[in-house]
Amino acid sequence: MEQACADLPFRADLIGAGKSYLTITFGCQANEFDTEVFAGMLESAGYRRAAGPGDADLILLNTCSVRQKPEDKVAGMLGRLRKLKEEREGLTIVVAGCMAQRPSAAADLARRFPFLDLIVGTHALPRFPQLLEQAGRSRRPLIDIAAENEGREGLPVVRSSSFKAWLPVIHGCNNFCSYCIVPHVRGRERSRPFAEIVEEARSLEESGYLEITLLGQNVNSYGHDLAEGERADFAALLEALDRLEGKARIRFMTSHPKDLSPRLIEMMGRGKKICEHLHLPAQAGSNRILEGMNRSYTRERYLGLVGALKKEVPGIALTTDLMVGFPGETEADFQETLALLDEAEFDHAYTFIYSPRPGTRAAEMEEQLSFAEKNERLQRLASRQNEISLRLNRALLGQTFELLVEGRSKNNPEMFSGRTRTNKLVHFAAAEELSGKLVAVEITEAFTWYLAGERV
Ligand code: SAH
Ligand code: SF4
Ligand code: F3S
């Protein structure tokens, strides 16, 4: 899948010859990976990475639709790019990703920002090079929202890191949680062939990658759609990757509680390369709300999973996603979400205000809450979680962890930051360059969001 684009022979007839590009990504890891594929396709067409927006010949925004906020950010940015587009003849602006795949959003963008050259949805991604060529000749903007997913195998990738890699294992989602736009913009589940994933992981390890994050909207449902004879589940995939000779840490996200099998929990406990961290979105603590969300599990089942994980995977860190203000959520429902925090003891929770998404079932529900009400609940939820995060982080004082160093602090060149296997962020001082290396650090200070330590 990977291709060393820098080694491609220079061809003056390539559409990007002598031109440069810039990508800006909104949204989740799936989008971050897709941006690496767009970069791969652009570099294969002769483009090279630009230093900044000022000298780019092509700017690509890879967008997210999960809430209204990321959609508003894209509109805000396009508003600012309007001037650049007027000033610079030949500047190409592309909108890609989940917002581009939402037909009414794409039409709205085309109307408000008629200077856009190309709007390319998630399904048309493999056709991007041809579309780009066509966009140069057609009336603006060219819109492509293919109805069907096209194969993504064999597309070039330019990875943004030389030591951490994304590795998609399943695309799309079949769950249709009632609030969620993702299945509408990413299509149905398509598992990638088992052998291909294993081979790609092997080749990443061989090229020196020290961390591989397996990606999917719901990685736990991996394999159910593979051809007979090739059927496998996610636990089997983890086992195969754990057996590879290399030493890369293996992470994965996101896991859906309804598909988290005992086999998978057992594999997490046993796998040497599988990191002791699980992101397991709970969304809410009230069974009535979970049912309205179409999450297919109860609070009791969720807490049962948390208990099993803590027992079978020693030292595991748990993180979650929680939403406040789902239609009809009462104070009593919300209290159950607060109580879930105390019972599950998450290391960290990503907390969101419910945002109605056009075309989803929940957006049509009555009893939508006011923004003030939702925001007040969010503040209470976040402050309760902050206390728990700080308490759990303080319990790590004096312990030593292996960190994969991610880079140097922008503000202080002597400070580096890295992640433990449990995905905790740790800052520490060092004189020599350590980015991309594994180091041992003892925790000396604990905060809500991060830890500080010293090399041992
Ligand atoms: N596939 C993953 C993540 C999907 S989006 C999963 O199933 O967990 C990431 C998070 O965004 C979700 O877990 C949810 O908490 C939040 N989210 C999704 N739709 C939302 C909406 N309409 N409003 C607010 N938050 C939303
Ligand atoms: Fe959205 Fe639910 Fe699918 Fe996650 S599992 S992407 S929340 S529909
Ligand atoms: Fe956003 Fe699309 Fe991911 S909607 S969260 S970028 S799948």
Q: Please report the number of helical segments.
A: 13
Number of strands: 19
Summarize model confidence as the mean pLDDT. 94
- Approximate shape: globular
Overall number of structural domains: 3
Strand order, main sheet: write it out. Answer: 2-1-3-4-5-6
> What structural class should be given to the helix and strand makeup?
alpha/beta
User: Which CATH C-level class of the largest domain is it?
Assistant: Alpha Beta
Largest sheet: 6 strands, parallel
SSE blueprint:
Layout: E1 20-25, H1 29-44, E2 48-49, E3 58-63, H2 68-87, E4 92-97, H3 98-101, H4 103-112, E5 118-120, H5 128-135, E6 142-144, E7 164-168, E8 170-171, H6 182-186, E9 190-191, H7 194-206, E10 211-215, H8 234-243, E11 249-253, H9 262-270, E12 277-279, H10 287-292, H11 299-312, E13 317-324, H12 331-344, E14 348-353, H13 371-394, E15 400-408, E16 415-419, E17 425-429, E18 438-446, E19 451-455
Parallel strand pairs: 1-2, 1-3, 3-4, 4-5, 5-6, 7-10, 10-11, 12-13, 13-14, 17-19
Antiparallel strand pairs: 8-9, 15-16, 15-18, 16-17, 18-19
Helix pairs in contact: 8-9, 12-13
Bound molecules: S-adenosyl-L-homocysteine, iron/sulfur cluster and FE3-S4 cluster.
S-adenosyl-L-homocysteine binds near residues 179, 281, 352 and 357.
What does this structure look like?
This protein is α/β, with parallel strands linked by helices and 456 residues long. It folds into three domains: 3-144, Response regulator (Rossmann fold, 3-Layer(aba) Sandwich); 160-394, tm_1862 like domain (pyruvate-formate lyase- activating enzyme, Alpha-Beta Horseshoe); 400-455, OB fold (Dihydrolipoamide Acetyltransferase, E2P). The protein contains 13 helices and 19 strands. Strands 2-1-3-4-5-6 form a six-stranded parallel β-sheet, sandwiched between helices. Strands 15-16-17-19-18 form a five-stranded mixed beta barrel. Strands 7-10-11 form a three-stranded parallel β-sheet, with helices on both faces. The longest helix is centred in the last third of the chain and has 24 residues, at 371-394. FE3-S4 cluster binds next to helix 1 and helix 6.
